[in-house]
Amino acid sequence: MNAPAPQPLEATTILERHDEGGVTTLTLNDPTSRNSLSEAMLTALSEALKAIAADRSVRAVVLAAKGPVFSSGHNLKEMTARRADADRGRAYFTDILDRCSAVMQQIVTLPQPVVAAVQATATAAGCQLVASCDLAVASSAARFCTPGVNFGLFCSTPMVALSRNVTRKHAMEMLLLGELVSADEAFRMGLVNRVVPPGEELGAAQVFARVIASKSTLTVKIGKKAFYEQLEMGLADAYRHASAVMVDNMLARDAEEGIGALLGKRQPRWEDK
Protein backbone atom coordinates (compact mmCIF):
# COMPACT_ATOMS: atom_id res chain seq x y z
CA MET A 1 0.00 0.00 0.00
CA ASN A 2 1.44 3.34 -1.04
CA ALA A 3 2.07 6.01 1.59
CA PRO A 4 -0.17 9.06 1.30
CA ALA A 5 1.29 11.93 -0.71
CA PRO A 6 2.80 14.69 1.45
CA GLN A 7 0.66 17.76 1.94
CA PRO A 8 1.89 20.87 0.12
CA LEU A 9 3.31 23.59 2.35
CA GLU A 10 0.38 25.90 1.61
CA ALA A 11 -2.03 23.41 3.18
CA THR A 12 -0.23 23.26 6.52
CA THR A 13 1.20 26.73 7.11
CA ILE A 14 -0.65 28.94 9.58
CA LEU A 15 -0.55 31.78 7.04
CA GLU A 16 -1.31 30.94 3.43
CA ARG A 17 -0.39 33.18 0.50
CA HIS A 18 -2.02 33.17 -2.93
CA ASP A 19 -1.07 35.55 -5.76
CA GLU A 20 -3.25 36.26 -8.78
CA GLY A 21 -3.52 39.22 -11.11
CA GLY A 22 -1.59 41.63 -8.90
CA VAL A 23 -3.66 40.72 -5.82
CA THR A 24 -2.11 38.79 -2.92
CA THR A 25 -4.47 37.00 -0.55
CA LEU A 26 -3.09 36.19 2.90
CA THR A 27 -5.23 33.72 4.83
CA LEU A 28 -4.98 33.05 8.56
CA ASN A 29 -5.04 29.26 8.83
CA ASP A 30 -4.82 28.27 12.48
CA PRO A 31 -8.43 27.46 13.38
CA THR A 32 -7.41 25.24 16.32
CA SER A 33 -6.22 28.40 18.12
CA ARG A 34 -9.11 30.44 16.70
CA ASN A 35 -6.58 32.14 14.40
CA SER A 36 -5.03 33.79 17.43
CA LEU A 37 -2.23 36.29 16.99
CA SER A 38 0.25 33.90 18.53
CA GLU A 39 4.01 34.32 18.40
CA ALA A 40 4.09 32.19 15.26
CA MET A 41 1.22 34.04 13.57
CA LEU A 42 2.72 37.46 14.31
CA THR A 43 6.04 36.31 12.89
CA ALA A 44 4.36 34.91 9.77
CA LEU A 45 2.34 38.08 9.21
CA SER A 46 5.35 40.33 9.73
CA GLU A 47 7.51 38.35 7.29
CA ALA A 48 4.73 38.19 4.68
CA LEU A 49 4.04 41.91 4.88
CA LYS A 50 7.76 42.70 4.61
CA ALA A 51 8.01 40.57 1.47
CA ILE A 52 4.88 42.12 -0.05
CA ALA A 53 6.12 45.65 0.59
CA ALA A 54 9.16 44.93 -1.59
CA ASP A 55 7.22 43.04 -4.29
CA ARG A 56 6.37 45.36 -7.19
CA SER A 57 4.06 42.75 -8.71
CA VAL A 58 1.65 43.06 -5.76
CA ARG A 59 -0.83 45.89 -6.25
CA ALA A 60 -3.36 45.09 -3.49
CA VAL A 61 -3.72 42.66 -0.58
CA VAL A 62 -6.68 40.75 0.84
CA LEU A 63 -6.48 39.50 4.42
CA ALA A 64 -8.81 36.55 5.06
CA ALA A 65 -9.16 33.67 7.51
CA LYS A 66 -10.28 30.05 7.63
CA GLY A 67 -12.46 28.45 10.26
CA PRO A 68 -15.31 29.56 12.54
CA VAL A 69 -13.40 32.60 13.87
CA PHE A 70 -11.62 35.36 11.92
CA SER A 71 -9.24 35.97 14.82
CA SER A 72 -9.66 35.78 18.58
CA GLY A 73 -6.77 38.16 19.21
CA HIS A 74 -3.76 37.42 21.39
CA ASN A 75 -3.04 33.84 22.35
CA LEU A 76 -3.94 34.04 26.04
CA LYS A 77 -2.64 30.53 26.74
CA GLU A 78 0.83 31.55 25.54
CA MET A 79 0.67 34.75 27.56
CA THR A 80 -0.65 33.11 30.74
CA ALA A 81 2.13 30.51 30.67
CA ARG A 82 4.68 33.30 31.04
CA ARG A 83 3.27 34.39 34.40
CA ALA A 84 5.64 31.76 35.77
CA ASP A 85 8.63 33.89 34.67
CA ALA A 86 10.66 35.63 37.37
CA ASP A 87 9.16 38.99 36.36
CA ARG A 88 5.62 37.51 36.19
CA GLY A 89 5.73 37.88 32.42
CA ARG A 90 6.39 41.63 32.16
CA ALA A 91 9.21 41.32 29.60
CA TYR A 92 7.28 38.80 27.53
CA PHE A 93 4.04 40.82 27.61
CA THR A 94 5.97 43.93 26.54
CA ASP A 95 7.63 42.07 23.68
CA ILE A 96 4.48 40.40 22.34
CA LEU A 97 2.45 43.62 22.48
CA ASP A 98 5.27 45.52 20.75
CA ARG A 99 5.39 42.84 18.04
CA CYS A 100 1.63 42.98 17.55
CA SER A 101 1.66 46.78 17.36
CA ALA A 102 4.47 46.59 14.80
CA VAL A 103 2.40 44.27 12.57
CA MET A 104 -0.58 46.63 12.75
CA GLN A 105 1.69 49.50 11.73
CA GLN A 106 3.14 47.39 8.91
CA ILE A 107 -0.38 47.13 7.49
CA VAL A 108 -0.91 50.88 7.73
CA THR A 109 2.46 51.73 6.19
CA LEU A 110 2.34 49.00 3.54
CA PRO A 111 2.49 50.66 0.08
CA GLN A 112 -0.35 48.44 -1.13
CA PRO A 113 -3.89 48.82 0.25
CA VAL A 114 -5.12 45.95 2.43
CA VAL A 115 -8.73 44.71 2.36
CA ALA A 116 -9.99 42.53 5.21
CA ALA A 117 -12.44 39.73 4.33
CA VAL A 118 -14.12 38.90 7.63
CA GLN A 119 -16.03 35.64 7.55
CA ALA A 120 -16.72 35.30 11.27
CA THR A 121 -16.05 36.76 14.71
CA ALA A 122 -13.12 39.14 15.23
CA THR A 123 -12.37 39.91 18.86
CA ALA A 124 -9.79 41.96 20.78
CA ALA A 125 -6.58 42.14 18.70
CA GLY A 126 -8.49 40.32 15.95
CA CYS A 127 -10.84 43.30 15.81
CA GLN A 128 -7.73 45.51 15.89
CA LEU A 129 -6.46 43.63 12.85
CA VAL A 130 -9.64 44.42 10.91
CA ALA A 131 -9.54 48.07 12.00
CA SER A 132 -5.91 48.34 10.85
CA CYS A 133 -6.79 47.35 7.29
CA ASP A 134 -7.60 50.08 4.77
CA LEU A 135 -10.93 48.51 3.78
CA ALA A 136 -13.06 45.71 5.22
CA VAL A 137 -15.82 43.47 3.90
CA ALA A 138 -17.78 41.41 6.41
CA SER A 139 -20.09 38.46 6.18
CA SER A 140 -23.48 39.19 7.71
CA ALA A 141 -22.59 36.39 10.14
CA ALA A 142 -19.47 38.21 11.37
CA ARG A 143 -19.30 39.78 14.81
CA PHE A 144 -16.86 42.24 16.33
CA CYS A 145 -15.88 42.73 19.95
CA THR A 146 -13.28 44.25 22.27
CA PRO A 147 -14.14 42.10 25.29
CA GLY A 148 -11.14 42.73 27.54
CA VAL A 149 -13.14 44.75 30.05
CA ASN A 150 -15.17 41.59 30.77
CA PHE A 151 -12.15 39.76 32.17
CA GLY A 152 -10.11 42.57 33.72
CA LEU A 153 -7.92 43.49 30.75
CA PHE A 154 -8.99 46.67 28.96
CA CYS A 155 -8.39 46.42 25.19
CA SER A 156 -5.93 49.32 25.17
CA THR A 157 -3.94 48.38 22.07
CA PRO A 158 -7.02 47.45 19.99
CA MET A 159 -8.34 50.84 21.10
CA VAL A 160 -5.68 52.60 19.01
CA ALA A 161 -6.88 51.17 15.69
CA LEU A 162 -10.55 51.17 16.68
CA SER A 163 -10.57 54.84 17.70
CA ARG A 164 -9.04 55.77 14.35
CA ASN A 165 -11.88 54.04 12.49
CA VAL A 166 -15.08 54.87 14.31
CA THR A 167 -16.40 57.82 16.31
CA ARG A 168 -15.27 58.25 19.90
CA LYS A 169 -18.67 57.34 21.29
CA HIS A 170 -18.82 54.15 19.23
CA ALA A 171 -15.25 53.20 20.18
CA MET A 172 -15.96 53.74 23.85
CA GLU A 173 -19.21 51.78 23.57
CA MET A 174 -17.32 48.76 22.27
CA LEU A 175 -14.45 49.16 24.74
CA LEU A 176 -16.55 49.77 27.86
CA LEU A 177 -19.37 47.31 27.22
CA GLY A 178 -17.29 44.51 25.73
CA GLU A 179 -20.31 43.23 23.84
CA LEU A 180 -20.50 41.57 20.44
CA VAL A 181 -21.39 43.98 17.64
CA SER A 182 -23.16 42.66 14.56
CA ALA A 183 -21.81 43.15 11.05
CA ASP A 184 -24.64 45.57 10.28
CA GLU A 185 -23.82 47.59 13.40
CA ALA A 186 -20.12 47.54 12.50
CA PHE A 187 -21.10 48.93 9.09
CA ARG A 188 -23.16 51.68 10.73
CA MET A 189 -20.22 52.55 12.96
CA GLY A 190 -17.82 52.68 10.01
CA LEU A 191 -15.69 49.70 11.02
CA VAL A 192 -16.48 47.84 7.78
CA ASN A 193 -17.25 49.05 4.24
CA ARG A 194 -19.63 46.32 3.07
CA VAL A 195 -21.77 43.56 4.56
CA VAL A 196 -22.49 40.63 2.28
CA PRO A 197 -24.17 37.21 2.61
CA PRO A 198 -22.05 34.52 4.30
CA GLY A 199 -19.53 32.99 1.93
CA GLU A 200 -19.38 36.05 -0.32
CA GLU A 201 -17.02 38.16 1.78
CA LEU A 202 -13.79 36.90 0.20
CA GLY A 203 -15.08 37.43 -3.33
CA ALA A 204 -16.32 40.91 -2.47
CA ALA A 205 -12.99 41.81 -0.87
CA GLN A 206 -11.15 40.54 -3.94
CA VAL A 207 -13.38 42.72 -6.16
CA PHE A 208 -12.21 45.73 -4.12
CA ALA A 209 -8.62 44.56 -4.50
CA ARG A 210 -8.88 44.00 -8.26
CA VAL A 211 -10.32 47.49 -8.77
CA ILE A 212 -7.43 48.93 -6.75
CA ALA A 213 -4.99 46.78 -8.74
CA SER A 214 -6.23 48.40 -11.95
CA LYS A 215 -5.03 51.83 -10.80
CA SER A 216 -1.55 53.33 -10.93
CA THR A 217 0.40 51.76 -8.08
CA LEU A 218 2.40 54.96 -7.68
CA THR A 219 -0.76 57.02 -7.26
CA VAL A 220 -2.28 54.56 -4.78
CA LYS A 221 0.97 54.42 -2.80
CA ILE A 222 1.18 58.22 -2.64
CA GLY A 223 -2.47 58.50 -1.63
CA LYS A 224 -2.43 55.84 1.09
CA LYS A 225 0.70 57.30 2.70
CA ALA A 226 -0.66 60.85 2.62
CA PHE A 227 -4.04 59.77 4.01
CA TYR A 228 -2.56 58.36 7.21
CA GLU A 229 -0.02 61.17 7.57
CA GLN A 230 -2.59 63.95 7.39
CA LEU A 231 -4.86 62.21 9.92
CA GLU A 232 -2.28 62.88 12.62
CA MET A 233 -2.01 66.63 11.78
CA GLY A 234 -3.97 69.74 12.61
CA LEU A 235 -6.22 71.13 9.85
CA ALA A 236 -3.80 73.78 8.51
CA ASP A 237 -0.82 71.41 8.54
CA ALA A 238 -2.91 68.70 6.89
CA TYR A 239 -3.81 71.02 4.01
CA ARG A 240 -0.20 72.17 3.60
CA HIS A 241 1.00 68.58 3.55
CA ALA A 242 -1.73 67.41 1.18
CA SER A 243 -1.04 70.30 -1.20
CA ALA A 244 2.68 69.49 -1.32
CA VAL A 245 1.89 65.82 -1.94
CA MET A 246 -0.52 66.72 -4.72
CA VAL A 247 2.03 68.97 -6.44
CA ASP A 248 4.57 66.13 -6.46
CA ASN A 249 1.86 63.73 -7.65
CA MET A 250 0.87 66.14 -10.44
CA LEU A 251 4.44 66.03 -11.74
CA ALA A 252 4.51 62.21 -11.85
CA ARG A 253 4.36 60.49 -15.22
CA ASP A 254 1.17 58.58 -14.36
CA ALA A 255 -0.69 61.78 -13.49
CA GLU A 256 0.35 63.28 -16.82
CA GLU A 257 -0.77 60.11 -18.61
CA GLY A 258 -4.01 59.80 -16.64
CA ILE A 259 -5.09 63.39 -17.20
CA GLY A 260 -4.10 63.14 -20.86
CA ALA A 261 -6.17 59.98 -21.20
CA LEU A 262 -9.14 61.66 -19.53
CA LEU A 263 -8.94 64.65 -21.86
CA GLY A 264 -8.34 62.40 -24.86
CA LYS A 265 -11.21 60.08 -23.91
CA ARG A 266 -9.07 56.94 -23.86
CA GLN A 267 -7.90 54.40 -21.33
CA PRO A 268 -4.68 55.33 -19.47
CA ARG A 269 -1.55 53.24 -19.80
CA TRP A 270 0.05 53.21 -16.38
CA GLU A 271 3.83 53.13 -16.01
CA ASP A 272 3.69 53.23 -12.19
CA LYS A 273 6.06 56.16 -12.09
Please outline the helices and strands.
Layout: H1 9-12, E1 15-20, E2 23-28, H2 39-53, E3 60-65, E4 69-71, H3 76-81, H4 90-109, E5 114-118, E6 121-123, H5 125-132, E7 135-139, E8 143-145, H6 156-163, H7 168-177, E9 181-182, H8 183-189, E10 194-196, H9 201-213, H10 217-231, H11 235-250, H12 253-264
Parallel strand pairs: 2-3, 3-5, 4-6, 5-7, 6-8, 7-10
Antiparallel strand pairs: 1-2, 8-9
Helix pairs in contact: 2-4, 4-5, 5-6, 10-11
GO biological process, one term: fatty acid metabolic process
Protein name: Enoyl-CoA hydratase domain-containing protein 3, mitochondrial
GO molecular function, one term: hydro-lyase activity
Q: Can you name the CATH architecture of the largest domain?
A: Alpha-Beta Complex
Using the coordinates above, name the CATH class of the largest domain: Alpha Beta
Major sheet: 6 strands, mixed
Q: What's the total number of strands?
A: 10
Output the strand order for the largest sheet: 1-2-3-5-7-10
| Average pLDDT, all residues | 93
Per the CATH scheme, the topology name of the largest domain is: 2-enoyl-CoA Hydratase, Chain A, domain 1
Q: Quick one: overall form?
A: globular
Low-confidence stretches: 1-11
Structural class comes to: alpha/beta
Q: H/E order of the elements?
A: HEEHEEHHEEHEEHHEHEHHHH
Radius of gyration: 20 Å
Structure description:
The chain is of the alpha/beta class and 273 residues long. It has 2 domains: 9-213, 2-enoyl-CoA Hydratase, Chain A, domain 1; 217-264, Lyase 2-enoyl-coa Hydratase, Chain  A, domain 2. It is built from 12 helices and 10 strands. It has helices at residues 9-12, 39-53, 76-81, 90-109, 125-132, 156-163, 168-177, 183-189, 201-213, 217-231, 235-250, 253-264; strands spanning 15-20, 23-28, 60-65, 69-71, 114-118, 121-123, 135-139, 143-145, 181-182, 194-196. The protein has a 6-stranded mixed β-sheet with strand order 1-2-3-5-7-10, with helices on both faces. Strand 2 (23-28), helix 2 and strand 3 form a beta-alpha-beta unit. It is globular and about 65 Å long. The chain starts with 8 loop residues before the first helix and ends in a 9-residue tail after the last helix. The relative contact order is 0.11.
